[in-house]
Design brief:
about 475 residues; alpha/beta; 7-stranded mixed β-sheet; 6-stranded mixed β-sheet; about 40% helix; about 20% strand; globular
Length: about 475
């Protein structure tokens, strides 16, 4: 009898339910449900509508029953750093404030008044991003101390959804590491650091690793969707799941780019690099599957293309934009890592302003603006590649790209040229595939990480660029 596994992969702009089974040693995917996502404004804050997202989660699960393909397990992944707080009776008492909200402005300096920035990096290995959970919690302590005082449980976004499905409160390791409150040595909450910052240490649940079975669906959920199944937590940080899906061969030293709304570029390490040199280059050591470390740099990514498409290219597909940009000759570039591109009122205008301020040709129209963004991203990838090599002392021959950006052929060509490496692009649904692989390993359908990556490599097309 065929066993099906369900990955629910929710990104900043959309979510999808991907059903999979194994057939002749290959993973077969089927998209069951897709839905939009995005930040909404509420009381002057940018928030995620988690109630609507959970309704979409259940809608997609119901569709499995409708087509007669009942999964043996389900797991949910989302983006990192954001969270909710629960009250005495397990009810949500806070909005799910989005990382692009401005509440963390100035909170870095508040944190550094308790622990110097260099000491914080040496202690956690997590790169400074002004939206990290550590700064979000400081914003709550400063702006909404009454809510922090009422809180009984801290859950990250995918943990909250798993809790709604099962009633079990647990925080998954790979996502917990993004909070900048977890020790890379113990892989547990740094309770001393949490106390030093004045956060309530007793609200943080036990950390669970990818592959942990939380249990089965609550009776009321079973009744609503029409079946029961296990809930197996994947790498709930979408990048952790995407990196699991990188089809690297056993013992292969490779660079990867998880290319989506963000571009996460780096390599896997068996121990964290919390050195001053790594901090200076703004690299992070996020937790990965099997306690590997994702030693990587955050690069703004396709968020910039997604934004300008909405603004001036809504009638074009991403593929059309990419192909048209490949024929454009404009040579202007911008720094994609500049905070000015994090949440501008208008991305197109911001790119144009950056070019104007630097004395370069100002792009006009979707094709020129996209061309500037693609070439700028590739330049960032090339520089990040060289930084990884300097920090690790290794020379890498390959860059493996997973995620939606693997479809951007022009960007992949530019990346190969900027880095001097051979680029292997695919699979495009890397996050969902990594989510599914963690479930399959947990339930015995795949043996281990190496077996999963070999299966992924033979299951999906991989395109080569030199």
């Amino acid at each position: 009898m065929t066993q099906y596994y369900l990955a629910i992969d929710i990104g900043a702009s959309s979510g999808r339910h991907m059903l999979a089974h194994l057939e002749d040693g290959k993973m077969i995917l089927q998209e069951i449900h897709r839905f939009p996502n995005g930040m909404t404004d509420k009381g002057g804050r940018k928030v995620w509508d988690v109630d609507r997202l959970f309704a979409e989660i259940k809608t997609g699960m119901k569709k499995c029953a409708e087509i007669g393909k009942i999964p043996v397990s389900v797991g949910i992944d989302t983006w990192a750093v954001d969270f909710v707080l629960l009250g005495e009776n397990g009810e949500r008492i806070t909005d799910a404030v989005a990382y692009r909200d401005s509440r963390t402005e100035g909170m870095d300096e508040k944190v550094y008044s308790y622990i110097p920035e260099t000491e914080l990096y040496a202690r956690t290995g997590i790169q400074k991003q002004k939206f990290n959970t550590i700064y979000q919690l400081m914003a709550m302590r400063e702006q909404e101390p009454e809510l922090l005082a009422q809180a009984k449980t801290y859950l990250m976004i995918p943990d909250y959804f798993h809790y709604l499905l099962t009633g079990v409160k647990a925080v998954e390791y790979t996502n917990a590491s993004s909070t900048q409150l977890v020790s890379p040595e113990t892989k547990q909450w740094d309770k001393e650091l949490i106390g030093l910052l004045g956060y309530p240490a007793d609200i943080f649940p036990e950390i669970a690793v990818p592959g942990t079975c939380l249990g089965e669906l609550k009776p009321e959920i079973q009744e609503e969707i029409g079946y029961n199944c296990k809930v197996v937590i994947p790498g709930t940080h979408d990048t952790a799941s995407a990196v699991l899906a990188v089809p690297a061969e056993a013992n292969e030293d490779t660079l990867y780019i998880s290319s989506g709304t963000w571009s996460l570029m780096g390599t896997e390490l068996m121990s964290a690099d919390c050195s001053p040199e790594a901090q200076k280059q703004n690299f992070t050591n996020e937790g990965g599957y099997n306690y590997r470390f994702r030693f990587l740099k955050n690069i703004m990514g396709l968020w910039m293309i997604q934004s300008v498409k909405k603004e001036i290219g809504a009638d074009l597909s991403f593929g059309e934009i990419c192909e048209m940009a490949s024929r454009e000759q404009i040579t202007s570039k911008v720094d994609c890592n500049d905070d000015r591109f994090l949440a501008p009122a208008n991305m197109t205008a911001e790119v144009q302003a950056a070019c104007r301020e630097s004395g370069q040709q100002v792009p006009e129209g979707i094709v020129q603006v996209a061309s500037v963004i693609y070439s700028s991203l590739a330049e960032c990838y090339g520089e990040a590649c060289r930084e990884v090599e300097r920090l690790t002392g290794k020379t890498y021959e390959k860059i493996r790209i997973v995620g939606g950006g693997a479809n951007a052929a022009y960007l992949n060509e530019l990346t190969a040229k900027a880095s001097g490496k051979t680029v292997y692009a695919g699979p495009t649904e890397g996050t969902a595939i990594g989510n599914l692989a963690a479930q399959m390993i947990s339930l015995g359908a795949l043996e281990n990480l190496e077996d999963a990556r070999a299966c992924i490599g033979r299951s999906f097309p991989i395109h080569e660029y030199r």
